[in-house]
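Take a look at the protein record below and tell me what you see:
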Amino acid sequence: MEKTRTTLDQWVTLQAVVDYGGFAQAAEILHRTQSSISYTISKLEQTLEIEIFFLEKRRAVLTKQGEQLLALSREVIDKAISLEEVAKSFNHERNNKINIVIDSLYQSDEILEKVGVLSRYRKDYNIDFHQLSLAKSDIFTLENYDLLITHHYIESLNPIFLEQVEAIFVTHPNHELQHCVVDNVLELMKKMTLISLETTDIDRARSIQTIHVSNVALAIKLTENSLGYLWLPKNLIQKELNNKSLRELKTPNKKSFYSFYMYVNKNSMANEILKYYLIDDEKGK
């Protein structure tokens, strides 16, 4: 980005000299010395390599080039004043807002702790949480989020890796899959009903029947009622495993995982704040 060689103060000084009738008058209005005003205008002329004023009967008169520059400088000054007024108005408006969208499959106290720190130190921001079941295609239609956490990997959106969470198959404790030999369980699963979240691709398991559901709570409820088997991050169903309303289904396969990623909306006005409180530590992992 190319930097300007002139300053806003120089253009304000030029405008004051013209509007108030001379160097002495401008010095009085701006609470500066006349020599300071003269030096500022002289420096502006040297920088631009043009003559802005010429003397006519000991009076400074704008050259044609000076007149053109003055007109343009008035636009610049007006925009600068407007910018400051907008900035001042922020102190009188309601808090700004940060929209955080979290995949319903993601559960982490760590991210909540970081948001807690943000909320304590930045009282000028309200924080809206939205927990959604998102298909990969849904992410491209989201517009108003500032931060998104999901298990979907989208390279073009510059994903920031968060963590891997073990995923397991579960059923009702008395489901017939729990009573078969581990080596045979995968074949038998093909003949059973799979309960699958619409946002995942686990239905590739090729079960004879799939019940697609839109949220985690419903998926767990159906599984607790022995309607089928379910594949979810283990930490999401730890409560059900502890109270034995669900039971892990042992399979001969290696452990499987959900990977979670964080995305920052490139158009977010809160980018720097999110980076400071929520993102930098993750990049360092």
User: Anything to note?
Assistant: Residues 161 and 261 are 5 Å apart (CA to CA). The chain has ten helices and eleven strands. The chain has a mean pLDDT of 86. The longest helix spans residues 64-89.
